[in-house]
Amino acid sequence: MRYDEGADLDTSSVEDLRGGGGSGGFGGRGVAFGGGGLGLVGVAIYVLVQVLGGGSGGSSGSGVDGFPGVSPGRSADNSTLAQDCRTGKDANSSVQCAVVADINSIEDYWGQVLGARYTRTDTVFFSGSTQTGCGPAASGTGPFYCPADKLVYIDLSFFDQLHSQFGAQGGLFVDAYVIAHEYGHHVQDLLGTNQKVTPGETGPTSGSVRLELQADCYAGTWANHAETVPDERGHTLISDITQDDINRALDAAGRIGDDFIERNLGTGRVDPNSFTHGTSAQRQKWFTTGYRSGDPGQCDTFATENLG
């Protein structure tokens, strides 16, 4: 995956809470805790820690057992990020700048697809812990979308964890897939799709699984258009997505399925009744459905009995 070196980056859709802007691209090794979408790896914490945060509406509680040290306030400082991440050339050499470019591209895509129905939102870069509209975010979850404050949260060290803990091949496009999945949850929130899901519902055909698979499919539709979707100035940020990139995304999807996580990172026993995100095969299928069709209309996981 390559970014157009002449494209301008816009850091205004990022709230950088890491302190000093995190110019190295990675902060501390904290990951997030929240409600709603729970990100790509939230189910791992359900299996390993048995702690799950809230429902689609979220909670602003002052604390959660096992997640101490969360400050009730936050202060974003984008000055270093804005200085470091100016063009696509920066995105080709820095993970944090690549994520900024991904956010720009994904938001431009959904703005074109949904028009006035789309409301832009920010991604919060944090390190260690932070407070969210869905409660405290701290070590344990990974990237997630919080419907209560309509923000995406990520500790960028998650991309290292995806490789070291889950064994994913990784790469810039895998990082982009992660971000696109979370913005898929934002789209679901805007369209009212979250209302079809009972908070805490689990199982192989549950609304929770359907919500996650649809977000994977939405990520695939963005990937289909990523090389051609222009920003407000008519400039395309992403110049090259290869088959190797797609293969790496499918590899990552295969390693964050409920069955893979329960078998390899949990008790070793797969329990379909506990599923919240879908199997590895399902996650690969729905990303592929979105990528091949490029049509969000093909992503209605709530209208089919066959999830794959």
Largest sheet: 4 strands, mixed
What shape does the CA trace take? globular
Major β-sheet strand ordering: 2-3-7-6
Average pLDDT over all residues: 83
Helix content: 25-40%
> Beta-sheet strand percentage?
5-15%
Instruction: Please give the count of helices.
Output: 10
Please report the distance between the alpha carbons of the first and last residues.
28 Å
Order of helices and strands: EEHHHHEEEEEHHHEHHH
How would you classify the helix and strand content by structural class?
Answer: alpha/beta
Low-pLDDT parts are 20-72
Cα-atom Rg, whole angstroms?
18 Å
What is the tally of beta strands? 8
Q: What are the defining features of this structure?
A:
308 residues; alpha/beta; four-stranded mixed sheet; 10 helices; 8 strands; 8% strand
What does this structure look like?
By secondary structure, this protein is of the alpha/beta class. 38% of the residues lie in helices and 8% in strands. The strands form three sheets. Strands 2-3-7-6 form a four-stranded mixed beta sheet, with helices on one face. Strands 1-8 form a two-stranded antiparallel sheet. The chain has a two-stranded antiparallel sheet with strand order 4-5. Strand 4 and strand 5 form a beta hairpin. It is globular, with a radius of gyration of 18 Å. The two termini are 28 Å apart. Residues 20-72 have low confidence and may be disordered.
